[in-house]
Amino acid sequence: MVAFKDLVRISEYEWDIEKGYRNGMLVPVRVFATEAIVKGSLDDNSLEQAVNSSFLPGLKGHFCVMPDVHQGYGFPIGGVAAMDYESGVISPGGIGYDINCGVRLLSSDIPYELAAPLLEDLAVLLFQNCPSGVGKQGAARITENEFQKICLQGSSWALTNGYATPSDIEFTEDNGCMQGADFSAVSSRAMERGLAQSGSLGSGNHFIEVDVVDQIFDESSAGIMGLVKNNLVIQVHTGSRGFGHQICTDFVRDFQLLNNKYHFSLPDRELVCAPIRSKEGQKYLSAMKCAANFAFCNRQLLSSVVRNTVEEVFSKELSKFQLRLVYDLAHNIGKIETHTINGKDQKVCVHRKGATRAFGPGSVDIPEKYRRIGQPVLIPGSMGTASWVMVGTDAAMKKSFGSSCHGAGRVMSRTEAKKNVRGEILLKQLKEKGIFIRAGSVSGAAEEAPEAYKNIDLVIESAVGAGLVKKVAKLRPVAVVKG
Amino acid sequence: MNGLNSFPDFEEIPHKADVAIIAYGYSLPELFTHAALGLYHILGPTIDGQLEAEDIFEIQAHDIESMLVSFLTELLFLAEKGIKTEILELVIDDNALNVKYLKKTGQIFLNSIKAVTFNEMKILKKDEIFQTRIVFDL
Fold first, then answer.
1. pLDDT value of position A140
2. Could you tell me the residue ranges of all domains in chain B?
3. Is A263 a catalytic site residue?
4. Do A253 and B70 touch (CB under 8 A)?
5. Which pLDDT score is estimated for A135?
6. How far is CA A410 from CA A35, A71, A395, A413, A449, in A?
């Protein structure tokens, strides 16, 4: 197990586990966190998993660990790795089962004071209207033919079919569609699972959350994003549901046979991989893109339901209002990107597992509107605590392949949370604080209790301290819907 | 609890983000059956329930861990379709697994599992008892 003495302090917010820590490591591990968070992460296997991940062929620079790190499987959650496109590998377990799990933020011009009396109704109706929970059927009934189109077109399918605006497409990462998806790479079982789940939230830590813009730290950037102090905003957090889970399952199973074929020696079977340029690697990439496009479209379909629900609740109070998409981003994804590494531009496959792209100002990969300020980075907190809107930086481009953290990160297992937290009491306490929760189950809410997560403000302090992101606004939750 | 040596069918072990169990069995089929019980324990109680009927499925795998992952993944797939299984017979023959089960349809599970992972999975025989760790992605 990694111990504190094994970490070399680079700065107040950066720590290295050097390449010589274990035979077989190809690059060092770089942890972006305060000393307290680093010490806390030694309680579980997360840094051990980061060391294991540093064995993957073709790694460049260092294996990055974000401050919301916690134990996962294969990669730790909060792991970022860049593999050389020509000689490196792609690892489905380094992207995760919930391919393109991500979050989007919608801004509004609805002031909190006007909304407050209706927030409980809003939570109830959002819960009713947005299908959630285990294997729940989605909001959109689609045929197999339409499903294939979703996999190839992503959010554009939603635009064509009346579930999106052109602006929604503009402000979604990759415009809501990863090019190069190939449906022939997808198993029939994956399609069967996905078909029933278009426009559904899912369970676990997925949510729809209504927040108030509580504090603004950067007036100019907030203005560009349309964030106004005291107005409501809405976050949607979900991914590719059973479709993505099945694609990852299929390829982790199939890639088990590749260790011998390609002479890989990996410390964890969950890290199985294929050379990016091989037929196996390209097939996974094509299937992964189908799941990513499905997830972009899924969040878009849910947004359409959210917009209709908000209109239903507020139409009597406000004659005209809009929910505008600030940004939609992925935090479980593999992307082919070009980064400057050791002074040279290199084409790499960046794996972000529980990590958010955080491109700095000037990047052509972010909407023109945001090019001067950097990419919006959305970092939701746990249920009942703040969320943060940030922007990516030049430093992130140099230090972490343009990446930052994606949330608070767990400190307590779900079992422990259920043991320590009474769901009914938690929901009552949150209601007394003015936060209305609608959850699929009371025990599910207990698993997601604020005390089960790190203090989001300390995670933000780490990411800002390391220079990966800059603060724009802090959001305060007022209504949460959980699957 | 199982047999004279009194070991549990499975036990839940700490895992920060997901859920992990260790499953035990005197034989590989028993280990698989107990792993299935562990999976249903995590999925939680079911609401409702309708027809019962016998059914079968078969899995091919290149090694025993892959077979266990595929077996549990199949049960998850059935759970997503509202089906809970009660294993009646489980036969492992080289690379093939044949499962006969009682199918209970119309089940709604309280919890969900995204996937069965290979993380830290290794089926070992220790003191005549097969055991393995299984991490489920939630």
1. 65
2. 10-137
3. no
4. yes
5. 47
6. 17, 9, 26, 7, 10
Q: Which of A8, A44, A300 is nearest to A167 (CA)?
A: A300
A39 Cβ contact partners less than 8 Å away, ≥ 6 residues apart: A4
Signed CA dihedral, A459, A460, A465, A466: sign only: positive
Measure the CA–CA gap between A396 and A398, rounded to whole angstroms: 5
Q: What is the pLDDT of residue A134?
A: 47
* ipTM of the complex, rounded to two decimals: 0.90
* Minimum-distance CB partner of B66 among A43, A96, A253: A253
Six token digits for residue B14:
């700490």
Give the model's confidence band at B50: pLDDT under 50 very low, under 70 low, under 90 confident, else very high. confident
Residue type, A340: T
**pLDDT cut 90: percent of chain B above it:** 71
The structure's pTM equals 0.95
- Report helix angle B64-80 to A241-255, nearest 10: 170
Q: Please identify among residues 47-76 of chain B the ones whose CB lies closer than 8 Å to any CB of chain A.
A: 62-63, 65-66, 69-70, 73
> Are B19 and A415 a contacting pair at CB < 8 A?
yes
What is the per-residue pLDDT for A93?
A: 95
- Range B10-137 has CATH code 3.40.220.10: no
